[in-house]
Design goal:
The chain is an all-alpha fold and about 425 residues long. The protein has two domains: about 200 residues, Growth Hormone, Chain: A (Up-down Bundle); about 210 residues, Up-down Bundle (Growth Hormone, Chain: A). The protein has 19 helices and two strands. Strands 1-2 form a two-stranded antiparallel sheet. The longest helix is centred in the middle third of the chain and has 33 residues. The termini are far apart.
C-alpha cells in the first residue's frame, strides 16, 4: 500500500536525521571539555590569571544552564529545526570570536556565545526523536546519543592536542566554528521536526507532546520545586558534576602538565580516558541498575563513594600519583561522575508523572552545569592565591583546589543517601 511505502521511507530517513543531530551533540561535548588540553596555552597567550581562566572555562556553563527551560519553550513554539539552526549560528560566531580573541574578556564573550548556541541542541533533539521513533525505541536512541557525546569528549582530548599542535589553539577553534557552520546548514537542509512535515506517517505509534494538556509550565515548575525528593537529586547533580567539569573540563590538563611535566599529547591521552569511561559507563551502569542491583539509589551511592575516593587521591596524593593512577582516575571520573548522570536523570524522571517529565528534566538539568559554572572559577581563584613558580601553579595550589573537590564529593555522597528509590 502507498501508506506502507511512505512509512518505510520515514523509517529510513529518520536515521539520516538522527546522525545529523548526533554530530551536533558531539560538538556539544567537545566544547564542554575542550579547554582542559589547551588551557596552559590560552593562559599564556591571553595573559590570564587562574580566576579569569576559570571564568573562561565556566562561561560555557552559565548560558547552557540558563537556556534549558527556554529550549523546551522554543522547541514547542518555534520548532526544533529552526531553534537548533539559529542557535548553532550563534555558536559559530562564538567559536570564531574565541579563536580571534585579543584578550581574555573577548575570549569569555566568545565562549559564552558557544555555550548559548549549543545549549539549544539536546532538548530540541529529544523532541525530534520522540516524533520519529517509537516510545520503545526512544531509550535506546537516547543511549546512543549519549555515547556519541562521549566521542565528543574524546575528540576534545588527544585529537585537539594534535590539531592545536599543528595549527595552534586559535585556528583550532576557528576550524571548529567552520565545522559548526556546516552542521547548522545540514540541520536546516536535512532535519524535519516530524514526519508529517514531509507528508509521511509517523513511525512513532504515539507522537509525543512536550507538555500534555492539563499542566502549564509555571504550574509544573512549582510542583517540581515543591517536591522534597527533587532536591537530593538536584544537590547530588550540582556537586557531583562540579568535580567532573572542574577537573575534566578545565584544570585536569594544567595539573598534569604543570605538576608532572607531561606533554600536551600525554595529558590529552590521559584525559581521553574520561571519554572512554563515559562511553562504557552509560550502558553498563544502566544495565547494572536495572538488572543486577534493581535499584537507582544503590548505584548512585556506590558511584558517589568511588568519586569521593578519586577526589581524595587528587587532594591528598596530589604530586605522588603514578601515570597509571592518572589513567585510572580519569577513567573512573568518566564512569562514576559522568556516565552515572544517566541514572540520575532516570531517577528524576521516575519521581514525577509523565506529564511533568519534561519540566522536571529541564529543571534538574540546570544543576550539573551550575556546578561547573560555580567551581571552575573557584578552583582558579584558589590556584591563584597559592601563587606561581616559573609561570606555573604550585603543588600546594592544586592540593587546595582538589581539596575543594573532595568536599564536593562529601556533599554529593551525603545527598545520595537521601535520594528516593524509584524502583519498587
Amino acid at each position: 500500500m502507498p501508506n506502507e511505502d511512505l512509512l518505510t521511507k520515514a523509517k529510513k530517513y529518520r536515521w539520516i536525521i538522527f546522525w545529523t543531530l548526533s554530530f551536533g551533540y558531539l560538538l556539544v561535548y567537545f566544547h564542554r571539555l575542550c579547554p582542559a588540553v589547551v588551557a596552559v596555552d590560552m593562559m599564556r597567550d591571553l595573559n590570564a590569571t587562574g580566576a579569569l581562566t576559570g571564568f573562561l572555562g565556566a562561561a560555557y556553563f552559565y548560558p547552557y544552564a540558563a537556556m534549558q527551560l527556554p529550549a523546551g519553550l522554543l522547541s514547542d513554539s518555534w520548532g526544533p529545526r529552526n531553534t537548533i539552526t539559529l542557535f548553532f549560528f550563534i555558536a559559530v560566531a562564538g567559536s570564531i570570536i574565541l579563536g580571534l580573541a585579543p584578550t581574555v574578556f573577548i575570549a569569555i564573550l566568545g565562549r559564552t556565545m558557544v555555550g548559548l548556541g549549543v545549549a539549544m541542541l539536546f532538548v530540541p533533539t529529544m523532541k525530534i526523536l520522540a516524533e520519529w521513533f517509537h516510545a520503545k525505541e526512544f531509550a535506546v536512541m537516547t543511549g546512543i546519543l549519549m555515547a556519541i557525546g562521549g566521542l565528543g569528549s574524546l575528540v576534545a582530548a588527544t585529537p585537539l592536542v594534535w590539531l592545536s599542535s599543528w595549527i595552534g589553539w586559535r585556528m583550532s577553534f576557528i576550524a571548529v566554528g567552520v565545522f559548526t557552520l556546516v552542521l547548522a546548514a545540514l540541520v536546516w537542509i536535512i532535519v524535519r521536526d516530524r514526519p508529517a512535515d514531509m507528508g509521511w506517517p509517523s513511525p512513532a505509534a504515539e507522537p509525543s507532546q512536550a507538555r500534555p494538556a492539563g499542566i502549564k509550565l509555571l504550574e509544573g515548575v512549582g510542583k517540581v520545586l515543591s517536591t522534597p525528593h527533587f532536591w537530593p537529586v538536584a544537590i547530588w547533580f550540582f556537586f557531583n558534576c562540579a568535580i567532573f567539569f572542574s577537573f575534566g573540563g578545565l584544570w585536569g590538563g594544567p595539573y598534569l602538565i604543570q605538576v608532572y611535566g607531561y606533554s600536551k599529547s600525554q595529558a590529552g591521552q590521559i584525559l581521553s580516558m574520561l571519554a572512554f569511561g563515559m562511553i562504557i559507563g552509560s550502558p553498563l551502569l544502566s544495565y547494572v541498575s536495572t538488572n543486577v542491583l534493581q535499584s537507582r539509589k544503590k548505584i548512585i551511592i556506590l558511584s558517589s563513594i568511588v568519586v569521593l575516593i578519586l577526589a581524595a587521591c587528587l587532594a591528598f596524593m596530589t604530586e605522588r600519583i603514578p601515570m597509571g593512577g592518572h589513567y585510572a582516575i580519569c577513567f573512573g571520573l568518566g564512569l562514576f561522575s559522568s556516565a552515572i548522570v544517566v541514572i540520575g536523570f532516570t531517577t528524576n524522571k521516575e519521581l514525577f508523572p509523565v506529564q511533568m517529565a519534561g519540566t522536571a528534566t529541564g529543571l534538574v538539568n540546570l544543576f550539573p552545569f551550575a556546578g561547573g559554572a560555580v567551581f571552575q572559577p573557584i578552583l582558579g581563584y584558589v590556584l591563584e592565591q597559592q601563587g606561581k613558580v616559573d609561570g606555573a601553579f604550585t603543588i600546594a595550589g592544586y592540593q587546595q583546589a582538589f581539596l575543594v573537590l573532595f568536599f564536593c564529593g562529601v556533599i554529593a555522597l551525603g545527598a545520595s543517601f537521601f535520594i528516593k528509590e524509584t524502583i519498587e
